[in-house]
Amino acid sequence: MSTCIYPGSFDPLTIGHLDIIRRASTLFDEVVVAVLHNSQKRCTYTPQQRVEFIEACVGDMPGVRAIHFEGLLVEAARQQGAEVILRGLRMEADYASEAQTAEINHRISGGLETLFLPTRPAFTCVSSSIVRELLYYGVSVAGLVPGAILDRVVAAYQRPAR
Ligand code: ADP
């Protein structure tokens, strides 16, 4: 049984994330989408909401499940039985920090590998931060977040003070 863990903030899930999950589900028996709960990083949506958004979009992908975790990613990977960490790469700028994180995770886990999937060109400019920025200004995010969760993402958005 091959299992990967796909960690991130997913604040909220976008069509770029979903494309990576779908492609990973054809490569691994199990894909654990792991929503990072980091008390230092303020997210717009709660960990529970972020997990629910993912669950609402992966019903047709057997072997995909969502969890939320706090603490070290390599520990979550061990608990979930994942032998690979999966990350998506959008552009060259992502690579430098991702390679560094991958090396540290390899070192502290005693050999856990990170696999990168390049984004499809259509999703290069899609990010959770763009979605939040558009929501802040009341602009439609249709086509950036999966249609199945669009209404919920808009309804649950709370405008932060700036
Ligand atoms: P983080 O805060 O850890 O970067 P994100 O939720 O922003 O978490 O992203 C989670 C993962 O999904 C990362 O590996 C990121 O590079 C990848 N990702 C984000 N947006 C896209 C996209 N449009 N296409 C492909 N991968 C993406």
Which key phrases capture this entry?
5-stranded parallel sheet; globular; 6 helices; binds adenosine-5'-diphosphate; alpha/beta
How do the strands and helices of this protein lay out in sequence?
Elements lengths: L2 E6 L6 H11 L4 E7 L10 H11 L6 E6 L3 H8 L3 E6 L2 H18 L3 E6 L9 H9 L13 H7 L6
Parallel strand pairs: 1-2, 1-4, 2-3, 4-5
The protein binds adenosine-5'-diphosphate (ADP).
The site of adenosine-5'-diphosphate has 16 residues, from helix 1 and strand 4.
Task: Give an overview of the whole structure.
This protein has about 160 residues and is α/β, with parallel strands linked by helices. Helix content is about 40%, strand content about 20%. It has 6 helices and 5 strands. It has helices spanning about 15-25, 45-55, 75-80, 90-110, 130-135, 150-155; strands spanning about 5-10, 30-35, 65-70, 85-90, 115-120. It has a 5-stranded parallel β-sheet with strand order 3-2-1-4-5, sandwiched between helices. The longest helix is centred in the middle third of the chain and has 18 residues, at about 90-110. The radius of gyration is 15 Å and the shape is globular. The N and C termini lie far apart (about 45 Å). The relative contact order is 0.21. The model has no long low-confidence stretch (mean pLDDT about 95). The structure holds adenosine-5'-diphosphate. Adenosine-5'-diphosphate (ADP) binds near residues 16, 17, 20, 88 and 90.
